[in-house]
Structures are given as C-alpha cells and as structure tokens.
C-alpha cells in the first residue's frame, strides 16, 4: 500500500542533511537525474539516492509515494526544462516546431532519464503546462477541438517516441554506440550492387544520414499535415 504524501511545506526538514542541504522535491529530483546519468536506470535506488543526499533512504518516502512516483517526477522535470527554454512567437507552425525540438533536446540531455520516463504520464504541473501550450497552439491555429486533440496526440507521442529511441542510443556504452553507427559505413557500404542494388546506390547517403535523428524530418511532415487540415486539403481521417 502506498504511503500518504505529506504536503511539502509540512514535511521539509528543519535541519540540513549530512551534505548540508535541506531536502525538497526539487533537490531530490535533480539528484535523481544525476544518479541516472552516473549509474543508469538500474542504479536509481532509494539507498543510493539517500546516500547521495546524505539522508536516510526512508526520508524519500515523505516526498514521494515510491520510486515510481519519483520516476514520474523526473519526467515532469524534463518536460518543464523544455518549456523553460521555449517562448511562443505567434506563428503556430514555428512555435510547435520549436517546442517539439525543445522537448526532444530536453530528453536527450538526460538520456538515461529519458529511457526511464518517456513512456510515462506524470500528471504534474510542468507536464500539464506543456500539454496546455500544445493544445493552445493547435486550437489557436484554427483547428476544431476534435482535430486539435488528434494532432496533439500525434505531436506529443512523436516527440516522446523519438526521445526514447534516440536516448536509447545515447545511453549505450560508447563503444557499442560507435559500432552501431559505423555499421552504415562498413557492412552496408560494402554490399554488392548485384545483390542489393538499392542499398548500394544509396550507401554513401545512408552512412551520412543514419547516425542522426530523423525527428526533425518527421516533425515537419506532421506539421505539413496540420497545415493541410487547416486549408482543407487533408485526406479524411
């Protein structure tokens, strides 16, 4: 049974931890991000986090209902960091594009955290603020509510899916990641045209392109679909 979470103002420690810090949700989440970066998803434990904070591991449960609740808070923080660096300029397409890229970049800045949280829904304020911004841009562009929700779904899932995919590559050991990337210039580039004519014809372009994320290209394709919806030239869906 999960423990009741006490409001932060009622649970803040009066005395600093052994590290000289006063515990807060923000401090715990930031420390969790560091633990994920240093130890990977398997290394985020209450014991390790408590040691890093200079506090008894049980203290964490005064701030979070459990480690899963903390994972959702980490995802909420990544959403918020994207929004912190983004400002709407008044052009729906440019604003959606820049917000999508900000989300993708925020998750890739913390690849281990992205792998852990990209598929989660936190229901926390910073995540909600991102959702409100996306829906506001779509509705403000002139979409019906039905279309706005359809494209919101596609937009956020696309951003998070590519965040998880690209973060998964970044979270690999360096040697493994380099080996995967080099495969395009070694194995694929050496396939004979007699047996693999299409790969052979495009091998040089594949080697240059495939180590990079396809997210910007697919994002632009989605934005083209939204534009077509607004002009009435989109196919029925």
TrEMBL record:
One of its GO terms (biological process) is negative regulation of DNA-templated transcription. Coiled coil: none annotated. InterPro entries: Homeodomain-like_sf, HTH_TetR, Repressor_TetR_C, Tet_transcr_reg_TetR-rel_C_sf. Residues 45-64 bind DNA. Residues 22-82 form the HTH tetR-type domain. Keywords: DNA-binding, Transcription, Transcription regulation. One of its GO terms (molecular function) is DNA binding. Pfam families: TetR_C_1, TetR_N. PROSITE patterns: HTH_TETR_2. This is Transcriptional regulator, TetR family. It comes from Streptomyces lividans 1326.
């Amino acid at each position: 049974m999960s423990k009741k979470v006490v409001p932060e103002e009622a649970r803040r420690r009066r005395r600093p931890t052994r590290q000289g810090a006063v515990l807060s949700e923000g401090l715990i989440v930031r420390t969790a991000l560091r633990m994920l970066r240093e130890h990977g998803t398997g290394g985020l434990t209450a014991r390790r986090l408590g040691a890093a904070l200079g506090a008894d591991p049980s203290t964490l449960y005064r701030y979070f209902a459990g480690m899963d609740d903390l994972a959702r808070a980490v995802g909420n923080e990544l959403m918020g960091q994207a929004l912190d660096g983004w400002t709407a300029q008044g052009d729906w397409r440019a604003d959606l594009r820049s917000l999508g890229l900000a989300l993708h970049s925020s998750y890739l800045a913390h690849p281990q955290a992205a792998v852990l949280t990209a598929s989660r829904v936190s229901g926390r304020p910073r995540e909600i603020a991102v959702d409100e911004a996306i829906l506001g841009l779509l509705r403000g562009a002139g979409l019906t509510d039905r279309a706005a929700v359809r494209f919101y779904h596609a937009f956020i899932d696309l951003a998070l899916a590519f965040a998880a995919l690209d973060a998964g590559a970044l979270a690999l050991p360096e040697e493994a990641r380099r080996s995967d990337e080099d495969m395009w210039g070694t194995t694929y580039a050496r396939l004979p045209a007699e047996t693999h004519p299409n790969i052979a014809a495009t091998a040089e372009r594949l080697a240059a392109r495939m180590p990079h994320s396809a997210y910007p290209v697919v994002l632009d394709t989605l934005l083209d679909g939204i534009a077509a919806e607004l002009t009435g030239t989109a196919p029925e869906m």
